[in-house]
Amino acid sequence: MRGLLRVVVLVVTISLTLVLLPIAINVGTGGTAPDFLAPYVGWTWPAIGVLWLVAIVTGLAEYRSRRTVGLSARSADQPRNRPNALARVDRYLADRFAGSLASQTNLALALDVSPEAVIRPYDLLVQPLDGNVTEIREDADIAAAFDDLQDSMLILGAPGAGKTTLLLELARSLAAQAHSNPNSPIPVVVDLASWTASTAREEDDDPADSPLLAGFIRWLLAELTNRYQIPAAVGRVWLSKGRLGLLLDGLDEVALAHQEKLAPVLAELGQRYLVGQLAVTCRIQEYEQLQHRLKLYGAVRIRPLSRRQVLDYFASGGEELAGALAALERDEDLWDLVNSPLMLNVMALAYQGRDAREVAAGVLADHRRDLFDTFISEVLARYRPSSPHFESRAAVRSLWCLAWWTRTRAGDRIEVPRRLTPNGWYGLVLPAVGYLAHMVCLPALFAGLAAGSAAAATALYGVSSGLAVAAIALVLVHVRPHTWWTLQQGRDQPRGRLLAVMICAGAVAGLASALVVTALVESLPAWLGLALQGVVVWVSFGLEYVLSVNNLRRLLLTVRLLGVTAASWLVFNAVDHPTDFVAGSAIALMVAQGIRFVKALPMDHLVYPHSKEEHAGDRWRMDKWTGTGALAGLLVAVALGASLWWSNGLEPVMGIVAGTVAAKAWRRRAPVFAGPLSRGLHGFLLRWSGYLPWRRGAFLRYAAERYVLAKTGRGEYAFIHLLVRDHLAECDPDTLAAKVDERIAARTSPSSLARSR
């Protein structure tokens, strides 16, 4: 598409140049131009210059893009590309292992062959010489199993069984082979969670690929670029020549609507491209629900951990893991939980360094929720001198908020988003945030907006104009709709500084908007300023007329619009200072739009059950804030030397009245930017109340160093497991934070310090 657009631009610019150039030469040598071009003869050479410049820039861009693609494709065989890519793969694998719980244990997971889980293809690139199906060797590790299954394997396991860990181990083994054998493919681990099964086509796609495969290839190449810095053109060449081994993690994390599409995509991929190595991981339950099985050579299932493996592991830890052994001895139910590497790691970290006698004498974590609480409390309580510090309540609230959002918006995915989507916080109803929005932010913004606009009007046109602005602010705030409620929950939130911040923000917005529109109006001829406002008002009324289904309302809109237009025109021609009249109406329009904006802010997110009777008196609650703010702004302007009555007459007051009447039609529709600003306010209040971190990057590093999150790429993080994410999303953050504080107090007690010495 971009290439076609460049070609069109080149054709148009060259054609226009060929038309204009003879005319310019003819005029320059004493001739004449066509009659329709005669008034514009002076612009001919500048236009030709601009067209030449556009043609040159477009041609260079097209040449550069084609040359870049060609050079990238030719450079795929450059000797340095392969070792550079392998080095980045090694670094990525090292980072993944260092940030995962798997780095804390070294367990040999047992595998069972499961041939019925896949459809064995007949057109594999590598076939056994004798034609017999090869079974995996007994007690084979993941690399040996992959080799036995002809480098084409599905890895199945229960939640927390170690699927991703095995895939990373396989990648590490294959990377070692690639270092020693230049003919071995480069293994690349890619998370399937971000695949959206797009079918849109682009100009770089292979025309022979189906739309679904083309989208998959484009997504895969983008992942290789982001994760391993392999250019897309190089990745496409390597993929077509069988130089990449694809290790795809988390089929169960793909959106449910797209999981069935992976099987046909991989089948077509195997026919259209040389994929010498392919491995896919998935949870057992999700895979068994799929109708389309993957076309791979074989499948393995990860066995649950045996009691002997668990005992041997904890026994090998000595005194550091004696507390875990004591917990297992006291509570038989724990054995049903600690049957996977994840839960073994959770328990190991939760009880690491705990005194066995203390565990035996205390209350045991005999359920999964309690065990995860112990794990979170333990890892967050540990002091790391090189790590940023976060207070326990803020840390747990932030983890809860991120976990809630990830589960609600992303389903089975565990990736923490780089940024929140526009509607990402809808449905997250928190009493603390609701209280701050309704009881602090709204009144403060109304007061600040009234103060700023009244101060500007008073300073420009005297007290009469300031009083008029105060009056219209009170009227506009009081008329429906009323989007605020009186809330009691969340009263313990700090309010003073937030109130001051919001009042200042509203005052600056009101003052700046009034001054800007006044300066703009005064810089234009009065008739032009009135015409521009008329266009805005007519468009707003026209939209209301089109969107309204009530004929009576349409009639009233028409009558009001014609009345305001006629009255404004008559007053404009009758007054001595029409510019002041136009400026007053512009100020009123801005005040009306600002109040309408504030009314629409918080209700985009915060939904509370209520009744009309319960909140019948809420409509009067903002009047005192608005009136007090306007009066304060007026007094400040008078104290700074504003006129005590009016400057040039009552023209600004009449304009304010006209603008207010014209603006009433705007209140029926939400402002264009109210939604984004509402979400911004909600995010700000989440941070203010401690439910999101102010320093996002530092907090993500903090959580990764404590094995709650894992770093998956440059600036990319994910929860270490779905179970950990779900536990955090379902917990009471303040209760869990109290447990963290208790654990911190226990670790810093004199007896604990004495034992550590």
Commentary on this structure:
By secondary structure, the protein is mainly alpha-helical. The chain has four domains: 2-77, no CATH class; 81-302, Rossmann fold; 367-418 and 691-756, no CATH class; 431-602 and 622-685, no CATH class. Helix content is 59%, strand content 6%. It is built from 29 helices and nine strands. The protein has helices at residues 2-28, 44-74, 81-98, 142-148, 163-180, 211-228, 232-240, 262-272, 284-288, 307-316, 322-330, 334-337, 341-351, 356-361, 368-381, 392-410, 431-461, 463-478, 496-522, 526-547, 551-574, 578-599, 621-639, 651-663, 674-688, 696-705, 722-730, 733-747, 750-756, and strands at 111-113, 152-157, 186-191, 244-249, 277-283, 298-302, 415-416, 709-713, 716-719. The strands form two sheets. A six-stranded mixed β-sheet has the order 1-6-2-5-4-3, with helices on both faces. The protein has a three-stranded antiparallel β-sheet with strand order 7-9-8. Mean pLDDT is 75; it is low at 66-74, 122-131, 422-426 and 751-757.
